Amino acid sequence: MAYLQLKNIEKFFGEHRAIKGIDLEIKQGEFVVFVGPSGCGKSTLLRLIAGLEPIDNGTLSLDGRDITSLPSSKRDLAMVFQSYALYPHMTVYQNMSFALKLAGVDPKIIREKVDKAAAILDLARYLERTPKELSGGQRQRVAIGRAIVRDPKVFLFDEPLSNLDAALRVQTRIEIAKLHRELGATTIYVTHDQVEAMTLADRVVVLRDGQIEQHGSPLELYDRPANRFVAQFIGTPSMNVVPLDAAPQLLSGASQAPSDGFVGVRPEHVLLGDVQPGSVPVTVELVESLGVETLTYVRLPNDVQLVSRGAERSRLQPGQQTHVAFDQNFIHYFDAAGKSRAP
Ligand code: ATP
Fold first, then answer.
1. pLDDT tens figures, 166-180
2. Is residue 40 lining ligand 1, measured as CB closer than 6 Å?
3. Which ligand 1 atom is nearest residue 40's CA?
4. What is the pTM of this model?
5. Does residue 264 line the site of ligand 1, with CB under 6 A?
6. C-alpha closest to that of 54 among 64, 65, 44, 39
7. Residue of the nearest CA to atom 14 in ligand 1?
8. Predicted confidence (pLDDT) at residue 254 exceeds the cutoff of 90
9. What is the predicted pLDDT for the residue at 142?
10. What domains, with CATH codes, occur in the chain?
11. φ, ψ for residue 216 (rounded to 5)?
12. I need a surface site. Which of 108, 114, 153, 178 has the fewest CB within 10 A?
């Protein structure tokens, strides 16, 4: 049963069709992440759902009710922005209670709701401070708290972690995941960071050029990408994708390799080392030792570059020769247009 339903949603900016007829159903309690490259339309789609931009075509319904033309304030959604958007002269308590006060909620109930949200977000000690007396991470938690107290039908997050440094981003990401487990609230989250998408989402929606390329659970997208774009967008470093004729020997062990198009192999399935059946000599170009894993960039005699990821530390040096083979159990094929096909 769809809780939030998008039917053929379109958005134009002048002549530019930024959102091109999107259909999507979101279940109650689901955590859905919109990802895609810069300019793909993910923020615009979120803003259409929030009611911050008018929808040009299509319908949007929430909990069985058509909200396509309803003003933002009546949609019962709460949005958390990248920029926090806190009132600088108000205390944390006043920031978190502001919307409820405006709505005329009983002050005793406001106190209860703010205290509860502050406890969940570990903000109880900071309620009398103003935003400038808080760290970036604490400010973002206040922004989330402001959304929680409203008890909305859907939480909308627009790149909420992008102003935080790397360590704080990981910590806040864990807090958001925990919050979702505790509250079970329907959530839509926009990010360009696919690690956030993979770790937070029940379902990832990959957007490109105003359209959905694929949606599914994080591991479905990783293991069974619908096309070359999704295959290379999900996963770091990106899946190696090379023309089929660039390395025929590497596929000699594959039972039914097609004759044209592209072959895709994730870095962890590119194996380096001794000569073995189907392996090809390569030159090591670069070794990145990350402690927990090693990334090795190699070049085939025909100049095709591949990246390999291994858990072991490497003794290889740039300029050295070694051999490369593909793990034949994990090979992807794409046709000339980039669509996945069964081997
Ligand atoms: P980013 O990750 O860079 O924020 P995005 O995927 O969120 O990108 P959007 O901001 O949704 O992308 O923009 C989608 C497209 O619509 C882009 O081509 C953008 O230039 C265009 N666009 C967005 N807002 C407006 C606007 N107010 N007026 C005109 N064009 C806009």
1. 888 888 898 889 889
2. yes
3. 6
4. 0.92
5. no
6. 44
7. 41
8. no
9. 93
10. 4-232 (3.40.50.300), 239-245+264-341 (2.40.50.140)
11. 175, 180
12. 108
